[in-house]
Write a structure and sequence with these properties.
The structure holds 2 protein chains of 2 kinds. By secondary structure, chain A is mostly helical. Chain A has a domain of 64 residues. In chain A, helix 2 packs antiparallel against helix 3. The longest helix of chain A is centred in the C-terminal third of the chain and has 34 residues. Chain A is elongated. Chain B has one domain: Sodium/glucose cotransporter (Up-down Bundle). Chain B is 69% helix and 1% strand. Chain B has a two-stranded antiparallel sheet. Chain B is globular, with a radius of gyration of 23 Å. The chains are: A mainly alpha, B mainly alpha. At the A-B interface, helix 1, helix 2 and helix 3 of A face helix 4, helix 9, helix 11, helix 13 and helix 14 of B.
Chain lengths: 104, 551
């Protein structure tokens, strides 16, 4: 693919300030998902127990769906922010579907 | 020494041969189309929907790492053993952040390896070479872990592993190596895509049976945890003197305060590493677009749940009274004791195939990296396709031999330490690869210097760690005290921090001196481009072979 096609997209001209708050929220959600599991001192305890599991273990199992949910919310926010960003750059909102059949 | 059980062995062989024969047939079926194209794995999932992709990726996550290596840590009472769960939890937010950028720039420029990207971004052949060499080196101990997984299954089934002569003792290891070599040589990478469904179905059946049936058979989690807790207390009391003298490790359910950074740094260091291995990028590029990557990042943590339960099988083995010197054998032995023979055969086939397929993928990806970024870039720029194919085949064997040497030479108290050693190396390419995705500020020569410092410090520090109770031995722990502190941390992360300090400091120096930073072949909007945008081309299967040109 040639470099000419690329230079047609007015990427440098686009204004990203409209979606900046959305991207900051995305970043915060993900940061929580990364930092909280690393704070070992907040969960290194046997009690309270749950279903026979010491707190240390069931808390980390609990973190799995929580971080998953945070990441999913971040995903949804990033989707709408990406659409706006793409519109601002003069691109179609939805990327083209590419399949193995290959209309690319 | 275990006795061979005929039913178990027959079922094991049946499934093992079924999958292997499918692999061989797969390679013949496609051979006429493109003889020298080695890379199809990962791209197989491209036409599939989210669920099928999810199913297939999961099958690749559950390797000997999850079945054998992680439970072994818990079985041995290692306080940091459960780190694999926070590792896989924080992995997905991390993927979410940087993989879409890597996807975009790779699709704009036809990059199929991290070294391709480095060369385009930083215009530096030495830095690309460093990244390629590191990828190949770091893959070897990772393959070694899979070899140990196959070895231990054969061992538990009673095939070799005991006796006076070293041939009998090491028979499972050499069988494991021979199977892997033959399998890779004959079927290449096509086989995994085709056998993925059989393999993954087997693996899921075994995981679900194991995490439901085994704990219930042992009286439930309450009783398992209290048995384990008592057993650790007894051990610590009986060996109090040895533990105080440093000749034995104290056992614990979870990390005491002194080991908390060790635990967290293992999780963080492991989560930063996976997508810089040569075999990983293929799967990333196979995703349809950026959105699929992010959606999967949100769905993947469900795997962590099963991984956590599998890890706890290490505790189940203690509760079931399994006694073995080889911690890796604990869970396979547990399955043998608890499951009926026929299902133990199914389980062992699942574990062995689950180790074999990723090991094959890794060795071929490392070999292709060699051919593309070292052989063609530095040794023979006008190589014919035939020469390239020969290089890839030979080097994939060399990589496996390297893995074998890791198994033979390094202490194997914990096979997971092999993979963690690979992490020490691969993480030193992070500043160039991930840093490069965000900024061109880092100077190429500073990145190279930082990489060298990180590699030397990490390797030397890992070398100096003795196995507990065996003074003077080497590579005995992934943790070491962080310089100028008393805190234990994962060597990879400490080396990475040092690496980064060097990169930043030298970047200032080189920029002040006006040393040329080279020409950046990428542009800012390359990092946001999505499928169908101008300049974005689908990376075809053929492009993954070693002769693809970057744009």
């Amino acid at each position: 693919m040639s470099h000419d096609a690329r230079s047609q997209s007015p990427a440098s001209a686009h204004d990203s300030s409209a979606t900046r708050p959305a991207w900051i929220v995305v970043g915060l959600l993900l940061a929580v998902g990364i930092v909280v599991p690393l704070l070992v001192g907040t969960y290194d305890s046997e009690t309270p127990r749950l279903g026979g599991f010491p707190f240390f273990f069931w808390y980390q199992f609990l973190l799995i769906p929580i971080v998953s949910a945070l990441t999913y919310v971040a995903f949804r926010l990033s989707e709408s922010a990406t659409k706006r960003d793409r519109r601002a750059r003069g691109l179609p909102e939805q990327p083209a579907e590419q399949s193995k059949g290959g209309q690319a | 020494m275990n006795e061979i059980n005929a039913v178990e062995l027959a079922i094991f062989l049946f499934f093992f041969l079924l999958v292997t024969v499918m692999g061989f047939m797969a390679s013949r079926w496609r051979r006429a189309e493109s003889l020298d194209n080695l890379d199809e794995w990962g791209l197989g999932g491209r036409g599939f929907g989210t669920f099928v992709t999810w199913f297939l990726i999961g099958g690749d996550i559950y390797t000997a790492y999850t079945f054998v290596a992680v439970p072994a840590l818990l079985y041995a009472g290692s306080a940091i053993g459960f780190f694999a769960v926070p590792y896989t939890v924080i992995l997905y937010p991390i993927i979410f952040v940087f993989l879409p950028r890597l996807w975009s720039v790779s699709h704009r420029h036809g990059y199929v390896t991290p070294a391709d990207f480095i060369r385009g971004r930083f215009d530096s052949r030495p830095l690309a070479l460093a990244v390629a060499v590191t990828g190949i080196l770091a893959t070897m101990p990772y393959i070694a872990l899979q070899l140990v997984g196959i070895q231990v299954v054969l061992d538990v089934m009673g095939i070799g592993g005991a006796g006076e002569s070293w041939i009998a003792r090491d028979l499972p290891l050499f069988l494991a190596f021979a199977i892997l070599a033959a399998y890779t040589y004959a079927s290449g990478l096509r086989a995994p895509a085709l056998i993925a469904f059989v393999k993954d179905t087997l693996i899921y059946i075994v995981i679900i049976a194991a995490v439901i049936y085994i704990p219930s058979k042992l009286g439930g989690w309450d009783s398992i945890f209290s048995t384990v807790s008592d057993s650790f207390d007894t051990f610590n009391t009986e060996n109090a003197d040895a533990i105080a003298a440093g000749d034995a490790s104290g056992k614990a359910l979870f990390p005491p305060e002194a080991a908390q950074w060790g635990y967290a740094s293992l999780a963080l260091g492991s989560a930063l590493a996976p997508f810089m291995y040569p075999h990983s990028l293929t799967g990333v590029l196979a995703s349809k677009n950026r959105s699929v990557l992010r959606r999967n990042a949100a769905l993947l943590p469900a795997y962590s749940f099963l991984l956590g339960l599998l890890a706890l099988l290490g505790f189940c083995a203690i509760a079931a009274g399994i006694e073995t010197d080889n911690a890796q054998a604990a869970v396979p032995q547990l399955m043998r004791d608890v499951f009926p023979s026929w299902f133990a055969g199914v389980a062992f086939a699942a574990i062995a195939i689950g180790a074999l397929v990723p090991a094959a993928i890794m060795s071929i990806a490392a070999a292709n990296l060699w051919t593309r970024n070292i052989y063609k870039a530095f040794i023979n720029q006008n190589a014919t396709p035939k020469q390239e194919a020969t290089q890839s085949k030979v080097i994939s064997l060399v990589v496996k031999l390297g893995a074998l040497l890791f198994v033979v030479w390094l202490p194997l108290d914990f096979a997971i330490y092999l993979q963690l050693l690979g992490g020490v190396w691969i993480l030193q390419t992070f500043p160039a690869i991930v840093g490069g995705l965000y900024t061109r500020w880092f100077h190429r020569s500073a990145l190279l210097a930082g990489w060298a410092v990180g590699m030397v410090y990490g390797t030397w520090t890992a070398y100096q760690q003795p196995v507990v109770g065996d003074p003077g031995s080497h590579f005995g722990s992934p943790l070491a005290t962080i310089p100028f502190t008393d805190t234990l941390g994962y060597i990879a992360l400490t080396a990475f921090a040092l690496n980064l300090v060097v990169v930043v400091a030298l970047t200032f120096v080189f920029r002040a001196m006006g040393v040329s930073a080279g020409h950046d072949h990428t542009s800012d909007d390359d990092y946001h481009a999505d499928a169908g945008d101008p300049g974005v081309e689908e990376i075809e299967v053929d492009e993954l072979s070693t002769d693809t040109q970057t744009r």
